[in-house]
Amino acid sequence: FDILSSVFLSGTNHAEDQPVHLKLGDPAIPIQDNLPEYAEPAQRYCPAQVYEVIEEGGEKRFQINAQNCVHCKTCDIKDPAQNINWVPPEGGDGPTYANM
Ligand code: SF4
């Protein structure tokens, strides 16, 4: 495994019926100007493939796979648009790191 695979497969535990801990302040920002500086850094900085651009029928949309999040907070710190509202998840949730 490379480091990204190890993080991605670390076994994040989320109750997805809890309020989502990652929200966009303005959902329109990631798709402005054909997914420019915002979406690409968010995708690059996240080690867990939470931010994803989906292409369907010639349309691009931004998807947040919150269940993958390992709570590193990098996206919140590096978000160039400061549009990600990162809320600490409920106690007991999050990654369970294991030796791989
Ligand atoms: Fe990705 Fe942000 Fe979660 Fe870190 S806190 S895993 S960068 S979504």
Key terms:
alpha+beta; Alpha-Beta Plaits; 100 residues; globular; two-stranded antiparallel sheet; binds iron/sulfur cluster; 3 helices
What does this entry look like structurally?
This protein is α+β, with helices and mostly antiparallel strands and 100 residues long. It has a domain at 22-86: Alpha-Beta Plaits. It is 18% helix and 18% strand. It has three helices and four strands, in the order H-E-H-E-E-H-E. It has helices spanning 3-8, 39-45, 74-78, and strands at residues 22-24, 51-56, 59-64, 84-86. A two-stranded antiparallel sheet has the order 1-4. Strand 2 and strand 3 form a beta hairpin. The longest helix is centred in the middle third of the chain and has 7 residues, at 39-45. It binds iron/sulfur cluster (SF4). Iron/sulfur cluster (SF4) binds at residues 22, 45-48, 50, 69-75.
Task: Give the helix/strand layout.
Blueprint: H1 3-8, E1 22-24, H2 39-45, E2 51-56, E3 59-64, H3 74-78, E4 84-86
Antiparallel strand pairs: 1-4, 2-3
Iron/sulfur cluster binds at residues 22, 45-48, 50, 69-75.
